[in-house]
Amino acid sequence: MNNNVLLVSYYWPPSGGAGVQRPLKFAKYLPAFDVQPFVLTVENPTYPIVDESLANDIPKKLKVFKSKTIEPFSIYSKMTGKSVSDSAKPTIQLKKGNWGKKLSTWIRANLFLPDARFGWLLTARSRALAICKQYNIDAIITTGPPHSVHFVGKHVKEKMGIQWIADFRDPWSSIFYNQLMPRTDVAHSIDERLERSVLETADDVVVISKSMVDIERQVFDRPYHVIPNGFDHEDFNSLQKKPQNDQDILIRHIGSIGELSVPHSLFKALSELPNSSPVKVEFIGNVHPDVHQLIEQYGLQNRVELTSYIPHDEAIQAMKDSDLLLLVIPDSEDNELILTGKLFEYIGTQNPILMIGPENGDAADILNKSGHHYIFEHEDEKGLAQLLLDLSSGKVDQKTASDIKDLKNHPFSRYKLTGQLSQIIN
């Protein structure tokens, strides 16, 4: 007998970026495990990134419901001078800005708890209840961030008693970008109390890594399920690397670069290469202003290229066509716990990976088990410089990380990981 499940997610196509991938792929593959998903999302969202191509992954028979939200980003954008979409991004620059920007940032950090999306709860809770009653829903899954979405699941569980699974794609009160925010102790205490109320009430809590289990257990000690992010095998099965017309060695980073992810040591190492070096670097996606500054500072205009966000299918092809894929773990406290979504899609390409981040972290552990890679700490400028020189002189074998034929049954395929989620659903 099929289980009917309501999946509640703020991020849904046409949202782009990493946050939409997990709920979208769960909805895509749950029917293969005798689970019928229904989706509740936002009618009038504020997305930092839009990617219309992701709508192609929505199953044709999937019922998607929407309800309106009230969000403060239009007011926030006027105070900061940013666009509405830029204002929706979680990381904020605090080093520069007038009093209006600093005040608006303080308000966002201390008054919008647990996050600035909580206005959706006004309609989402009642709409979720109606859907659960009309379609005999057996379980509700809420996926965050934004973590305010979990209060939809909490409300439904309290009213109907059905199973509630809270899915944490990132930590809540301890997420790394809170280090950039001028948070008061009172705000942090309130946020942690809200987090604890979810962890205490949910029937099941899913996190993306064993280290996240340790983080959340500091807030509330309970059993946790670990389901990491992954890649969709259908994106990679027929993907072929395009032949290159030049001798350049292309290192690519796909995805946003925030303030804590700017690879300062890499730019310094690039500046020390001889002019004849064939090494080129391309950043595809939104980048922090410091990236532009470093390119100017080191005169790297002919070696570093910046490309704006591209649709997901094009991004996958760009990954495949790279000689080396760049992964940067934010240079923050507890960064050994951070697992970015792009790591798994990088693995799906079976191309070699250059990671800048903690050598003893979760991401490094996965890379050490997966194949061909290079790992350097953020401050290891000399190690990076030597790698770039070795690449320039052909001393590094740019072989693929692996050659796995059955990507569908890879441990990090979205299909396999959705199977793990189906086992949690009663």
Structure description:
The structure is a single chain. By secondary structure, this protein is of the alpha/beta class. Helix content is 37%, strand content 16%. It is built from 16 helices and 13 strands. The strands form two sheets. It has a seven-stranded parallel β-sheet with strand order 3-2-1-4-5-6-7. It has a six-stranded parallel β-sheet with strand order 10-9-8-11-12-13, with helices on both faces. Strand 5 (163-168), helix 7 (185-201) and strand 6 (204-207) form a beta-alpha-beta unit. The N and C termini lie close together (11 Å).
Strand-residue proportion: 15-25%
Radius of gyration: 22 Å
Low-pLDDT parts are 91-95
Q: Give the biggest sheet.
A: 7 strands, parallel
Distance between the termini: 11 Å
Series of secondary-structure elements, N-terminal to C-terminal: EHEEHHHHEHEHEHEHEHEHEHEHEHEHH
Q: Would you tell me the overall average pLDDT? A: 88
